[in-house]
Amino acid sequence: MQILYAKKTNNFLQEEIYRLQGEFKKIKTREVWEYPESVRNHPLSIDLDLCTKQGFLGIYDTTITEVGFRNYLNRFLQEPIEDAKLNFHPNEIRNILKKNTYHTYHLLRKYLVPEAETNEKFPLSRINSEDSFWKKRRFLKGFFPIWGVISPLYIVLGLLFDLPLIPLLLLINGILFVTYRNDSLKQWKEIKALSSGASRFRKIFVYLTKERKTTKQMIDQISSLGDSAELLISPLPHLILNLICLWDLWKIKSLENWKKKFGTFWNDLQIEIIKTDSLLPFANFGFLFPEASFANQSSVGNLSAQNLVHPLLPKSSRVFNPLTEMKPGDLMIVTGSNMSGKTTYLRSIAMSLLLAGSGAPVLGSGFEFPEFQIHTLIRSQDSMEDGVSFFYSEVRRLSSIIQNADSSKKIPILFLDEILKGTNSKERFIATREILSVLKEKRTIVFLTTHDLKLAEIPWAKRFHFTELEKEGQMDFDYQIRDGVSGSTNALKILKKEGIPIRNEKE
Questions:
Q1: Distance between CA 120 and CA 198 in Å, rounded?
Q2: Whether 349 and 451 share a structural domain
Q3: Per the structure, how many domains does the chain have?
Q4: How far apart are CA 288 and CA 315, in angstroms?
Q5: Within its chain, how far is the Cα of 29 from the centroid?
Q6: Alpha carbon of residue 198 to chain centroid
Q7: Average pLDDT, integer, range 212-240
Q8: What residue range is the signal peptide (predicted)?
Q9: pTM for the full model?
């Protein structure tokens, strides 16, 4: 077991190094189809590549509980947490990182599961206080302790002294066993789930509690009860024990006593474990990148940053860019040549928002954000099955965003990449202008990238651009944002570079 734990720790440290170095392809992450359908089909997941092999959700996932994993996903996507008790305050991540340099690392090591496969998630059951088993069998609850003692004694004495009625006694016990058999199996299932969780998460239970003696007693007792469940694998001995002494009822009674003694304590620790499990990916992000800083929430709804960068860019490739102050209703139009960094800039802002909204630090400084509702329309998808084109899919998404803005108290923030690209330029300009006017009225902060320089003429827009540089006849990019509208294009250069002839370039 120690060797296995050492190997697991070594693998964890190696993955941490890959995260630091930006070698994300070397990290074993989940396949897209392994995420819940609601997550992999979420607009943010699609537009920001969150669920791809090198997406943020997989790269920084350190969760090991099933519920903790779901909470981590929902937290990052700004979706409601299924149980309010499992939610955590944004300051909790800040507090973990403040305690000391190695606190996060120690927490993660305690959360390692030696027998687990990479990305495997485990259940950690909560105790159900309602006891339906004895509720249906109030008479049996008071009767069986007496009968369960008399019955085996009589059978032993009967075999020694040839007493009568042993077959009748066994028949009565057999009938009783049949009446509670189905419900007792449910109780055994709960015993096995609690025992498995106690054994698997033993180190974490002890690490997170101040009452270590009570915690060890709780785990030892339920683990011992769980060992009894091994007998269910052998049906004949299990049947004989129930015929002799109503064995299942004794174990169910032991479970009831354990719940009365430790139930509230277990549930409180279970909540603490899952909460910590779901926030550790964010805390670990801050631990790996101490240069990241925590954002401040704006009381007037503004969004700005001194500088920021996409969190998945390796250190060697990072180019930090500022974000000018954006107030509710503001529009930023970003123009620029192909591959110059327009879409990456939008994604950098969106990812920083998601990190800040999750309570995690942001790669950048001076990040200020409002209470927001984020929308992205970067990668539209058509549907052959539903007969929906790219254009109509985009229109439906825009309509939904506009309608949601009416009912939301949060500031809507929308990221658009080449809006309405599925229609002609004349109608696109008219439609885009009207859509942006409506979004301004609804106090939506909008970021729009475009190659259509006419769109940059919209009067209330803040205009920025990226461009390419030319060095020794070759295109070069510095990925720095600049004021104003782009004056350069490079589409024809790219075509010629790839061997596609352009015969009438002057036209």
A1: 17
A2: yes
A3: 3
A4: 12
A5: 13
A6: 23
A7: 92
A8: none
A9: 0.89
